[in-house]
Amino acid sequence: MREVGTGHVKVDIDGHRADVVLNRPDKRNAMNQDVLRDLRQAFEEVDADDDVRVIALLGEGPVFSAGMDLEMMAGRAEEGGELEVGLSDVTEAVADARVPVVAGIKRAAPAGAFELTLPADFRVISEDAKYGVIEVRLGMFPSGGAPTRLARLVGLAKAKEFVLSGEFIDPEEAERIGLVNEVCDAEDVDERARALADRLAENAPLGMQRARQVLNATLQMSVEESLDYEKALSEPLTETDDYTEGFTARIEGREPEFEGR
Fold it and tell me: Is the pTM of this model over 0.90?
C-alpha cells in the first residue's frame, strides 16, 4: 500500500481492485484540504491504470469518515474564499471514474462524508452507522452533490426528507429504499466491500464501463436518447476480444478470462 500526496490517502492495488483509503484515523478521517487534494489525486491515478477494473473507497481505522474537518470549515467561514480543492471536485472525480466504485461505510459518514459516498455505484454500510446530511443544522445546506444525487437515487420526496430534516438515515431504511446495497456489522464492512468489488472485477471490464456510462447518463436523457446511447456504446463491443471470449467460454463451460480489449 502506498501513500498519495501528503499521506492522508493510501492506495493499494490487489489484482484488478484498487483500494482508495482515507488515512487520517487520529482525526476520524475528517477531510481537510490535504485529504481532499489527496483523494482527487488518488482517483485520477487509479482511474488511469488500465489494470484497475473496480475501486473500493474505504476508511482507515474504526470509522469511514467524520465528514469535513470542522476546524478547517470554521476557519474558512472567518477568512472567506474557496478551497483549492473542494468536496465537489472530489465527488466529481468519483462520479467520473472509468470503473465502478464501491464505498465501505463504517460507523460514521455524516455531512460531507455522506456526500462523498453518493457518486459511488455501490454502498456497503454498517448497521450502526451515523449516515446522513446534517448541514441544515450547521447553518448551511449540503452543496457537495447531495440534493442533486439523492433526488435521483431515492426520489424527490425522500431527498427532501433527508436534506431538510438534517436527521441521520437508519441503515436498514437506507437499504430498503435502495440508497445502500448491503448492511452488515462494522467489523465486516471493509471485507464485504472488497468482496463485492472483487466479484465485479471478474466481469468484462469494457462491458461494465460502458454500462456504467449509460446508467449514469440515462436520467438526463429521454428514453429514445438513452436507447440510442446504449446502441452506440454496445455495438463496438462486438468487435472486441472480450466479446468473443465471453461467448466462447460459456459454450465451452468454463470461466471467461477477460483482458479488457
Answer: yes
